[in-house]
Design brief:
The complex is a heterodimer of chains A (about 325) and B (about 350). In chain A, the strands form three sheets. A seven-stranded mixed beta sheet of chain A has the order 3-2-4-5-7-6-12, sandwiched between helices. A five-stranded mixed beta sheet of chain A has the order 9-11-10-13-14, with helices on both faces. In chain A, strands 1-8 form a two-stranded antiparallel sheet. The longest helix of chain A is centred in the N-terminal third of the chain and has 15 residues. In chain A, helix 1 runs parallel beside helix 7, helix 3 runs parallel beside helix 4 and helix 8 crosses helix 12. Chain A is about 35% helix and about 20% strand. Chain A is an alpha/beta fold. With about 350 residues, chain B is of the alpha/beta class. Chain B is about 45% helix and about 10% strand. In chain B, the strands form two sheets. A six-stranded parallel beta sheet of chain B has the order 1-7-8-4-3-2, with helices on both faces. Chain B has a two-stranded antiparallel sheet with strand order 5-6. In chain B, helix 1 crosses helix 2, helix 1 packs parallel to helix 12 and helix 6 runs parallel beside helix 7. Classes of the chains: A alpha/beta (about 325), B alpha/beta (about 350). Chains A and B meet through helix 3, helix 4 and helix 5 of A and helix 6, helix 7 and helix 13 of B. Chain B: Keywords: Oxidoreductase, Pyruvate, Thiamine pyrophosphate. Chain B: GO terms for molecular function: magnesium ion binding; oxidoreductase activity, acting on the aldehyde or oxo group of donors, disulfide as acceptor.
């Protein structure tokens, strides 16, 4: 593969293709990932190319998918499993939290569990219930798991390669409303470390910290704010566990103001953790309290209301105004 | 498929035969079975005592299930892999796991305790039924590798109510995985009897998933050995999974925290006491002249010595290093774990400094 402009679905597909070709121990598993190529076509063509011993259509049983992936990992395989939609991960939550996250520590490091769990997540595609949720904080809270989420096709390609190449369980959240956004992917490039946050847009007056689907919203907000003479810095966190606080701290100590943005409910969310850490680390640098923009403390609404529920450019700019007013 | 309960050695110590299964075994083999059952029982009793003395936080006793566990264990080959429940101490001993490693977990020194790959015996899991899926996945891997072995996984009657166990049955059937599901139906899931777990005999569950299910007398070590051997051979030769229901009885409490007097009556316990797995094998060995009183005295003395040795070693077991909290969480490191580890070390060092100044 040469340098190409690819949508995120295709970038992840190429990344999985690379992983399957490079290591015979890599498996792709999940509901409909084989013949159909996944409901979003992320695994399109992989079974045809690598066969049904490498790309497994599984019974419709999320706990079974993750539980057997754990067994396969114990046998030396490197399963990449797909949970079809965010709201369907909960039947597997037990296996992920009580088994996958803890087994290495329980074995005093004797076993490795290189299992990647792909979860298309988040809203904005007009889906029905349980198809638009953002449960990332539930996983980031659990020791033993790594939680990452790309915001663009280039990162999706590289972060998947790195997740599959590592020896730890990784929960890989794919922002489904960015699946069709294109970006340039260069398989010959040198990637950033998997858990490094990046400055997606530099600025001076305030930092917007976001990840996954909200990075684009924040970049749009920063462009709009620039027209009013405000210089916003946008951070793409990329990884929630571990979270790259050094990059956050550097940015906040420069801009002195921070707004966190995610689709998940604000209450007990990733933004709360970031706000608390920033207060600990950079208290005397702050000119304003850390403000949080995110979902409400309600079940994800029916799709006709999701534009109201999801943080948009206006809600981000409203928080920016409030922070700058201090 | 057999619908009755497979039995070779009845509770009066008489040998019978079975048209479908083979239990041929030498007197030496029988004595080895007896020895392993006796040691399991003695080790288990020692652990219960140690818990009562405050050396262990908890202990799930295997008392009454020796035949099921030792019978199944003796069917295993070196290449086979076991995914146990948390009561399978007899199988652990047969796999060569140091009983101290079992006790360390219940003492609170570790949450695991042994290297699973070294003994082909996975860690205990306290979440009911989880391991049955791991076993199935591992068996799928064995089949992919074209490897020789098969997988044996153990669980109780209560676990059959868990979705994971049904999902494992289905995955194993769909992928034709070389796994033997060994259910020790000890009649009670803590205080809940079988009728609160199932409306059909458990071995019949297999029918709906498309593989054989067999009920064996779980207090008959020969039946457990014969049927498990048959099922493992089926698995190894590519014929897929089997469910074995070892119909047995947990003579003691669920764990040392439990009080079975609250939920079951003495008549039931007395009934099963007459079906004791060790007593019937001893009767057979004595009746055939394959072992005498001196032999049983020797076994008892050996078990006593091993139990005392275990007690001494357990009491000498140090607590883990506090820094171990941060060890082994991730294979490739984790910046926040490292940060907390460093902060913890610095905090601990303040105590060391204070102690130093006091001297």
């Amino acid at each position: 593969m040469t340098v190409q402009k690819l949508p995120m679905v295709k970038a992840i597909n190429e990344s999985l293709r690379h992983a399957l070709a490079a290591d015979p121990k890599v498996l792709v598993m999940g509901e409909d990932v084989g013949r159909l190529g996944g409901v979003f076509r992320v695994t399109d063509g992989l079974q045809k190319e690598f066969g049904d011993e490498r790309v497994l259509d599984t019974p419709l049983a999320e706990s079974g998918i993750v539980g057997t992936a754990i067994g396969l990992a114990l046998r030396g395989y490197r399963p990449v499993v797909e949970i079809q939609f965010d709201g369907f991960v909960f039947p597997a939550y037990d296996q992920i939290v009580t088994q996958l996250a803890k087994m290495r520590a329980r074995s005093l490091g004797k076993v490795r569990l290189p299992v990647v769990i792909r979860i298309p997540y988040g809203g904005g595609i007009g889906a029905v219930e349980h198809h638009s949720e953002s449960p990332e904080a539930l996983f980031a809270h659990v020791a033993g798991l790594k939680v990452v989420t790309p915001s663009n096709a280039r990162d999706a390609y590289w972060m998947m390669r790195q997740a599959v190449g590592g020896d730890d369980p990784v929960i890989f959240f794919e922002p489904k409303r960015r699946y069709w956004d294109k970006d340039e992917v260069d398989p010959g490039a040198t990637p950033l470390p998997l858990h490094r946050a990046v400055v997606a847009r530099p600025g001076e007056d305030l930092t917007l910290a976001a990840y996954g689907p909200m990075v684009k919203v924040c970049l749009d907000a920063a462009r709009a704010a620039a027209e009013e003479g405000r210089s916003l810095e946008v951070l793409d966190l990329r990884s929630l566990s571990p979270l790259d606080f050094d990059t956050v701290q550097t940015s906040v100590e420069k801009t002195r103001r921070l707004v966190t943005v995610h689709e998940a409910p604000v209450f007990f969310g990733a933004g709360a953790e970031i706000a608390a850490r920033v207060t600990e680390r950079s208290f005397y640098h702050l000119e304003a309290p850390v403000l949080r923009v995110g979902g409400y403390h309600s079940p994800y609404p029916p799709s006709r209301l999701e534009e109201t529920y999801l943080p948009d450019l206006d809600r981000v700019l409203d928080a920016v105004d409030r922070a700058l007013a201090y | 498929m057999t619908t009755g309960t497979v039995q070779f050695l009845n509770h009066e110590g008489e040998l019978t035969s079975h048209p479908d299964y083979e239990a041929e075994i030498s007197p030496d083999g029988l004595r080895k079975l007896y020895h392993d059952m006796a040691w399991s029982r003695r080790m288990d009793a020692e652990a219960v005592t140690l818990q009562r003395q405050g050396e262990l936080g908890l202990w799930p006793s295997l008392l009454g299930q020796e035949a099921a566990q030792i019978g199944a264990s003796h069917a295993l080959g070196a290449a086979d892999y076991v995914f146990p429940s948390y009561r399978d101490h007899g199988i652990a001993l047969c796999r060569g796991v140091d009983p101290l490693d079992l006790l360390r977990m219940f003492r609170g020194v570790t949450n695991g305790g042994w290297d699973p790959a070294e003994k082909n015996f996975h860690l205990y899991t306290l979440v009911i039924g989880s391991q049955v899926l791991h076993a199935t996945g591992y068996a799928m891997g064995l089949a992919k590798d074209g490897a020789q072995g098969a997988v044996l996984t153990c669980f109780g009657d209560g676990a059959t109510s868990q979705g994971d166990v049904s999902e494992a049955f289905n995955f194993a059937a769909v992928y034709h995985a070389p796994v033997v599901f060994f259910c020790q139906n000890n009649q009670w899931a803590i205080s809940e009897a079988n009728e609160r777990q199932t409306r059909v005999p458990l071995h019949q569950r297999a029918d709906g998933f498309g593989f054989p299910g067999v009920r064996v007398d779980g207090n008959d070590v020969l039946a457990c050995l014969a049927v498990t051997r048959w099922a493992l051979e089926r698995a190894r030769s590519g014929e897929g999974p089997t469910l074995i229901e070892a119909f047995t009885y947990r003579m003691g409490a669920h764990t040392t925290s439990d009080d079975p007097l609250r939920y079951r009556d003495g008549e039931e316990v007395a009934y099963w006491n007459l079906r004791d797995p060790l007593a019937r094998l001893r009767t057979l060995l004595e009746a055939r002249g394959w072992a005498d009183g001196a032999y049983f005295d020797t076994v008892a003395a050996q078990c006593e010595e091993s139990a005392l040795d275990l007690r001494g070693r357990l009491r000498a077991t140090p607590d883990p290093d506090p820094g171990d909290i941060f060890a082994h969480v991730h294979a490739d490191g984790h910046a926040l774990v490292d940060e907390e580890r460093a902060r913890f070390a610095a905090y601990q060092a303040t105590f060391a400094d204070a102690a130093g100044r006091g001297e």
